[in-house]
Design brief:
transmembrane helix; Peptidase; membrane; 5-stranded antiparallel β-sheet; single chain; signal
Length: about 270
């Protein structure tokens, strides 16, 4: 009995000891085979650079800039954002970095795992930032902030840094990975359309040239003052009229006050 108890205790202890090792040995997200590296980044929500899941990103920036990317999420997917910032060697203090994720309505989404706001000491050369989002739901109540299918935005920036370190060059490596299956968590409903579908940029229409008029074709001198005259409701008309009325009132007032004085003098 004692031998069995000892064996069971050893197995339990071994299982408990192996559990943390299993968590630490979780596979690291890797880029998709054949994916091209993206070298662009936006500086606002409107100029966010689209990036696909599994597509690596590598850009150069400056400390203090706001960096934006956007990606499309489908129902049932779980997205993980991993970023590595290579810091400048001549920086003088520690810095705190942050990665934030917003949905199409600019609502900030919570992270379930990852170092969302790590602090890099002055002695380190890189800092790793991560955020794992919740599973995207096919539908949700209007008052909730649950993640829904649509476009999401990633913002990376430094939130605490010495002023003298602002503007120093940095290199950012970013990777957004997606996992999960849309059919793994069925629900009694679905979103008819993405929350904010990706906007397709239009094209600038060229102006259609108009035929010149007879006056423009003539080489003679045409005196046209319509372009110089102000409109009837223009402030120049009211200013000029007010000035004329003020001058007339001044002259009349001077004449009325001057006449009795002239009579007393005679």
């Amino acid at each position: 009995m004692r031998t069995r108890s000892a064996i069971l205790a050893a197995l339990v202890a071994g299982g408990v000891a192996l559990a943390p090792a299993t968590v630490l040995a979780a596979p690291t997200p890797t880029p998709s085979p054949g994916a091209t590296t993206l070298t662009k980044v936006g500086t606002s929500f409107l100029s966010a650079t689209p990036v696909a899941a599994g597509q690596p990103v590598r850009v150069g920036a400056s400390t203090g800039e706001y960096l934006y990317w956007s990606f499309t999420a489908g129902a049932g997917e779980i997205h993980e954002i991993n970023a590595t910032v290579s810091l400048a060697e001549d920086r003088r203090g520690s810095s705190t970095w942050a990665v934030e994720v917003f949905d199409g309505l600019r609502r900030r989404q919570a992270c379930t795992a990852g170092a969302q706001t790590p602090t890099a000491d002055a002695s380190v050369s890189t800092v790793a930032i991560g955020c794992t989002l919740r599973r995207v739901r096919p539908w949700a109540e209007p008052w909730s902030v649950d993640p829904l299918p649509g476009t999401y935005y990633v913002r990376l920036t430094v939130v605490d840094v010495p002023e003298r370190d602002l503007g120093l060059p940095i290199d950012v490596d970013l990777l957004i990975s997606a996992s999960g299956d849309a059919g793994s968590a069925p629900e009694d409903g679905r979103l008819e359309a993405p929350l904010v579908p990706p906007a397709n940029a239009g094209k600038v229409l060229e102006a259609v040239p108009t035929a010149p008029t007879q006056d423009e074709e003539s080489d003679g001198w045409n005196l046209d003052l319509t372009g110089w005259l102000p409109e009837a409701g223009s402030r120049w008309i009211w200013t000029t009229a007010g000035g004329v009325l003020a001058a007339v009132a001044g002259v009349v007032g001077f004449a009325l006050t001057r006449r009795p004085a002239a009579r007393r003098a005679t």
